Amino acid sequence: MLKNLDPALGADVLHALRAMGHGDTLVIVDTNFPSDAIARQTRLGRLLHIDNVSAARAVKAVLSVLPLDSALQNSAGRMEVMGAANEVPPVQQEVQAEVDAAEGRAAPMYGIERFAFYEEAKKAYCVISTGERRFYGCFLFTKGVIAPDADLG
User: Fold this and answer.
1) Catalytic residue among 24, 30, 118, 136
2) Does Transmembrane appear among the keywords (predicted)?
3) Using CA atoms, how far apart are residues 20 and 50, in angstroms rounded to an integer?
């Protein structure tokens, strides 16, 4: 256990988040996502886990240490509901609240069509599987930077 780190963040996840560079993406997914098959095609090449927590809880943990890219308009994405692209189910509303809290402002997520999401996930740095059992608990985040004068405390 370490001070000031969310206990949901294990060593493998922390290592991957630290190794990522500006503009790299990570995927946080529910239990129904083809995690292992997609993760094998990512830069890291293996699946990471934040088990037994909801997608929102995993996102909160990750965003406690990972800056989102502010240079890009779209740094947080969500898998769209098939046949209802504008529908935002409760799991996505909960994650949106965590994104907004981490950013300290409204930072709307963009939608990604399901099969396009799979393709984008293959290009990601890594995939993190959660214990989320609700459908459409799948998200993509782009890592930003921390300014030289930023308070890291």
Assistant:
1) 118
2) no
3) 17
Is residue 147 in some structural domain? no
For 41, the domain range is: 22-142
CATH of the domain at 42: 3.40.1650.10
**Residue 89 host element (H or E):** none
pTM, full prediction? 0.95
Residue 124, SS3 per DSSP: coil
36 is catalytic: no
Mean pLDDT along residues 114-122: 98
The separation between CA 25 and the C-alpha centre of its own chain, rounded to angstroms, equals 8
How does pLDDT run across 33-69, given as a tens digit for each residue? 999 999 999 999 999 999 999 999 999 999 999 999 9
Catalytic annotation, pick one of 6, 12, 15, 22: 22
Q: What's the token pair of residue 111?
A: 């939608």
Tally of domains in the chain: 1
Coil vs helix vs strand at 96: helix
The catalytic residue among 24, 30, 69, 136 is: 69
Query: Is position 22 annotated as part of the catalytic site?
Result: yes
Annotation marks residue 118 as catalytic: yes
Q: Is residue 38 part of a domain?
A: yes
Does any domain span residue 125? yes
The secondary element (H helix, E strand) that includes residue 59 is helix 55-63
